[in-house]
Design goal:
The protein is an alpha/beta fold. Helix content is about 20%, strand content about 30%.
């Protein structure tokens, strides 16, 4: 367990908890546990103290996975909790976070457009949100390591 106790409310859900650096805790979870982990942080630190600031998808082609990192700012603790999970690269999908954080909108739309991750329950996903129309029309996801872009 890292020095910071901000990961403590997630201990039961986590596969692993790491302190990346001072002020940043990484909590590795199964994909279906991400929403529950976010809710637990809200319960522990207060709804107004927990903010989903960034969603980052990383193509791990050689592992057949896409790593999903949800950067959650916990204002009252002056720290970030990174909720990290891995989804299948061949059929990349994960439940949307829009129902509990409107801040998920742009991160989910960007990750869909650039990596092809489908956020189940997000009705706003579309191509050409970030990439040029001609790239989207070719069915290319530019951040995929085999995209050729």
């Amino acid at each position: 367990m890292p020095e910071s106790d901000v990961g403590e409310p997630l201990k039961e859900l986590a596969k692993e908890i790491q302190e990346m650096k001072v002020g940043r805790v990484v909590v590795i979870l199964d994909p279906e546990k991400v929403e529950e982990a976010f809710r637990k942080l809200q319960e522990r630190y207060g709804y107004l103290n927990v903010y989903l600031s960034t969603i980052v998808g990383t193509d791990l082609k050689s592992e057949g996975k896409i790593r999903m990192d949800y950067y959650v700012n916990v204002f009252s603790e002056s720290t970030y909790v990174v909720l990290r999970t891995f989804i299948e690269r061949d059929d990349p999908k994960i439940k949307t976070m829009l129902n509990i954080s409107k801040a998920a909108f742009s991160g989910e739309c960007e990750t869909y457009d650039l990596l092809g991750v489908k956020f189940e329950g997000n009705p706003y996903l579309k191509r050409s949100f970030f990439v040029p129309k001609d790239v989207a029309e070719k069915g290319v996801f530019p951040l995929r390591k085999d995209s050729g872009v």
